[in-house]
Amino acid sequence: MKVLTLNCGSSSIKFQFINLENEDVMADGVVERIGEEDALYTYKSEKYSVKKLEMPISDHTVGIKEILKNLMSDKHGVIKDQSEIDAVGHRIVHGGEDYADSAKINDEVMKVLDKCCELAPLHNPANIKGIEAITEALPDVPQVGVFDTAFHQTMPSRAFLYALPYNYYTDYKIRKYGFHGTSHKYVALKAAEFVGKKVEDLKIITCHIGNGASVCAIDGGKSVDTSMGFTPLEGIMMGTRSGDIDPAIPMYMMNNMKMSADEVNNVLNKQSGMLGLSDISNDMREIEDKILKEKNDMAIQAFEVYTYKIKKMIGAYAAAMNGVDVIVFTGGVGEKMPILREDVCVNMEYLGIKFDSKRNDSFADGTFEVSTDESRVKVLKVQTNEELMIALETRKVLS
């Protein structure tokens, strides 16, 4: 089965074309700056690679057509015609409480996606555009929605309810939803495979650390709590997002700093986190250089806050599950920043962690252990693959 996976943002489309017989990525790329005359298009296959080609791409439909044209190109395509595309799997950010699993796209799903636009105004409208573009270009090809929120629908009410008037939940669906579910599910399964046990027999804490970041408690293969909440702003400190703060701070900003609600929202989502606290960058590669090469005090302080909040979340989730067997680091930062993994895991011997600094220094791809052989809790670096997970979920649904 050959599956085209799409991750549509407001002005971008990331794609992979995967042959599930051998999990081979036949082609991948990204369309950026959709709607602009100088949009950027990147395409890569075994035979051909084009990086950052500038071209006008007016909307998602035009972007999808460009992707399909390259996949079927006589010179550098990987298929002869569109009949070789067996299915399309879409990353969809928000499925609300309606979907606890991936689903085949139909009229009912589209109604739910539209309803959830008010919960994910930056993401769901773009996801809908991607589905509509595929429907126009490939009307006979089945499509599947893989929801970021679906994996977390197993959370019990004690984990997802906020201490607000109960009718806020019943009438307005204000609750914790959680995100990054596709990644958390994928790395949990990979971790179980690595340690040679069934995921149903493990208590796993997965740390997806990128520019956006979240931690998830997975008990018996099911999400029982996660750090992101009603929106991706809640939880641990991130690249530009504040994470958890006193809820009175936004009111203080509005009353005393004379900021509007939109200005406060912009500060908390785009000017805070590592960027705001370090006053340097949200790019952890720059922060790492400032720490290791320059001993920059602001970078060091921000980094200590960053890792401390991850450490606290791990401790909280170990308490929630009455223990932990495996801790996983994944995401761009979690996979590629050894000093982060070490700073989080040192001084956690009480939990059963024995950290191995030499193993941790590896930048190898895939999955490897960064704890010692004697460590009661296994600490792993697992390379996430959300696109493969989307393709696998698509096959599962259509089977």
UniProtKB/TrEMBL annotation:
Record-level GO cellular component terms: cytoplasm
Subcellular location: Cytoplasm
Matching SUPFAM superfamilies: Actin-like ATPase domain
Recorded GO MF terms: acetate kinase activity; ATP binding; magnesium ion binding
Catalyzed chemical reaction(s): acetate + ATP = acetyl phosphate + ADP
InterPro entries given in the database record: Ac/propionate_kinase (IPR004372), Aliphatic_acid_kin_short-chain (IPR000890), Aliphatic_acid_kinase_CS (IPR023865), ATPase_NBD (IPR043129)
Role this protein plays: Catalyzes the formation of acetyl phosphate from acetate and ATP. Can also catalyze the reverse reaction.
Name of the protein in its database record: Acetate kinase
Organism per entry: Spirochaeta isovalerica
Gene of this entry: ackA
